[in-house]
Amino acid sequence: MNKIMKKILIIYNAAIAAILSLFGCTVNGPDEYGTPSADFVINGKVSSNTGQPVPEIAVTMRTEHYTDTAGNRLFSTIDSVATNSHGEYQIVAQSLWPEDHTFHVVFSDVDGAANGSFADTTITVEFVDPAFSGGSGNWYAGQVQKELNVELSPKE
């Protein structure tokens, strides 16, 4: 009986090894978990129509989320900052899938007449076939940057 059990175990082990090899169960190194991601950066300077930098302008990066049944476009806010005393800003969409993206960047005068009154401006920025830099070689593809300098018009 002992010889029969050994033969059964040998056949069983061979069958299990064959099944595992069909499914590609091999040990090639450490497992990696995560999602491919990248950072999309937009930076620039906001100035008035006279060329003067405009501080305290709200800069909001949005992406179109979907269109509802009534045809209204709905947006999701990704990042929002205020321009510094030199009119400079930087907004970042972090950890997005590394592919083409379109963002709507909204410039809003939220401080009233303190720095003049400016009309809201929305500019569409497209990242088509982005070339990422600084990636990790694994899941993080790196970042891509675009410069967007804006001249605001006075409010009428």
Q: If you had to describe this structure to a student in words, what would you say it looks like?
A:
- The chain has 156 residues and is mainly β.
- It starts with a helix and ends with a strand.
- The chain contains one helix and nine strands, in the order αβββββββββ.
- The model has no long low-confidence stretch (mean pLDDT 87).
- The protein has a single domain, classed as Immunoglobulin-like (Sandwich), CATH 2.60.40.1120.
- It is 13% helix and 46% strand.
- The longest helix is centred in the N-terminal third of the chain and has 21 residues, at 2-22.
- Strands 1, 4, 7, 8 and 9 form a five-stranded mixed β-sheet that branches. Strands 3-2-5-6 form a four-stranded antiparallel β-sheet, with no helix packed on it.
